[in-house]
Write a structure and sequence with these properties.
Elements: H1 15-22, H2 26-40, E1 45-47, H3 48-58, H4 65-75, E2 82-84, H5 85-95, H6 101-112, E3 120-121, H7 123-137, H8 143-150, E4 157-158, H9 159-168, H10 170-173
Antiparallel strand pairs: 1-2, 3-4
Helix pairs in contact: 3-4, 4-5, 4-7, 6-9, 7-8
Length: 177
């Protein structure tokens, strides 16, 4: 849920947390990465139809093609019609109904948060995440208003507080795929 320059690459991800967020065993995640690399080819990216095929093979649930397409669009930030592996995994995490919303949101926030090691969210990043959540869910939560409900004047909120807020926000928690 961040821009590409801030994303961690797969080899720096915490496989245990990734397992928790995706519901997939660590060995399957490694195999998925290897298979993705083979399928993606030189550019390291897959198309929407390849994404659908991968997702259906994972057996992660009964998401409709509409839901899968919506998730694909939300994570295809440059509108190239293609996803790299990090975007692919982020999309799989958001579609995963086997883990709870807090774990999904928390993992993605931490993966893309430039201040993750300090454990806080800045207003800029928080508002960016709200905008991305709006894209993902097709909602129109005002990022500035939502941030002002969280920030008590410190200029930041804890990552845990932010993830909890998102996981329980009525506009975001009403959607199930």
């Amino acid at each position: 849920m961040g821009n590409r320059s801030q994303r961690n690459t797969f080899d720096t991800w915490d496989l245990q947390r990734l397992q928790q967020a995706t519901g997939l065993p660590q060995q399957q995640l490694v195999q998925l990465y290897q298979r993705f690399q083979e399928e993606a080819g030189r550019d390291g990216q897959i198309s929407k139809s390849e994404f659908r095929d991968f997702y259906e093979e994972l057996g992660q649930g009964n998401a409709s093609h509409r839901a899968i397409d919506q998730v694909f669009r939300a994570f295809d930030r440059d509108n190239s019609g293609r996803l790299n592996f990090e975007e692919f995994v982020s999309a799989v995490i958001m579609l995963n109904q086997q883990s709870n919303p807090y774990d999904r949101v928390s993992f993605l926030i931490d993966q893309h948060n430039p201040n993750a090691s300090q454990g806080y969210i800045t207003p800029e990043y928080g508002q960016h995440v709200f905008s991305r959540m709006n894209d993902f869910y097709g909602t129109n939560v005002d990022p500035y208003d939502a941030w002002s409900q969280l920030d008590n004047g410190q200029g930041y909120v804890s990552s845990n507080q932010f993830a909890e807020y998102l996981a329980n926000h009525p506009q975001y928690s009403q959607f199930q795929y």
